[in-house]
């Protein structure tokens, strides 16, 4: 997509979505933008934070502004995989089994408190998130396009929860947090919601066809060869860092590339900058690293490792 007018049109349509979401979510522009970066990049997002900071509300507001089929799955310890994917039910009239679709058959799926379900149930999302399809009773069913999962989890409380396995974390394009709002933003939130929830005021501003078009156009954003090499250098640095036991996989390299294209489009540019890649390094690669036990004992985090890598890997010159 070398046409600047096309990129400006993408940025304008995305801005309309942001404006709608911000009628509900106040002062969290970065979080809203990261969700849209994941959506435009054709991936999924995991929102990790304490209860009550707006994780579910953000997901609902985003879904309503996009005007796509939306389903919410409330994960619980007694949930079965078939509760997500669907199940075959015997029809006595024609003596055959009929497949009844589960809530995974939607454009936007909110997987609320995903870490409340058992690993067996969590794994029901693996095929769906990676290949946009599910397999039930030996038959493969294609999920509707676009397909976008917004998962939330409480990363503080451990009682009654099951940590997401690394294989599933790697399926999320972006992992992010919300954080507490600033005092002024919290005051504005109280003022807006004095008479009740404002979620009902969110209107769809992008339809199903437009969203698919935005995703296709985003993939045309230009990425200089030097920047592709820069991404490879950053990812390789995670594999060689002394504090890291397992670095980012090639899927991480692709995720960083696609997210950088999405972020550039969101900013109304036809090309990716090195700063785009550096900004996205933590949200895209942070959850893909496994630190050594001795590093964790020293309170080293993946974000600190990535910050060090960003400061040490030379930034290329881009024409």
Mean pLDDT: 89
- Tell me the Rg in angstroms: 20 Å
Briefly note the structural class of the backbone: alpha/beta
Strand content: 15-25%
Order of helices and strands: HHEHEHEEEHHEEEHEHHHEHHEHH
Total count of domains? 2
What coarse outline follows from CA principal-axis ratios? globular
**CATH superfamily of the largest domain, please?**
P-loop containing nucleotide triphosphate hydrolases
Give the uncertain stretches in residue-range form.
none
Largest beta sheet, briefly?
A: 5 strands, parallel
Tally of extended strands? 11
CATH class call of the largest domain: Alpha Beta
What is the distance, rounded to the nearest whole angstrom, between the alpha carbons of the first and last residues? 17 Å
Report on the structure:
The protein is an alpha/beta fold and 319 residues long. It folds into 2 domains: 1-191 and 205-220, P-loop containing nucleotide triphosphate hydrolases (Rossmann fold, 3-Layer(aba) Sandwich), CATH 3.40.50; 221-313, Helicase, Ruva Protein, domain 3 (Orthogonal Bundle). It has 14 helices and 11 strands. The strands form 4 sheets. The protein has a 5-stranded parallel sheet. α1 (4-21) packs across α3 (55-66) and α10 (225-240) crosses α11 (250-266). The protein is globular. The two termini are 17 Å apart. The relative contact order is 0.16. The mean pLDDT is 89.
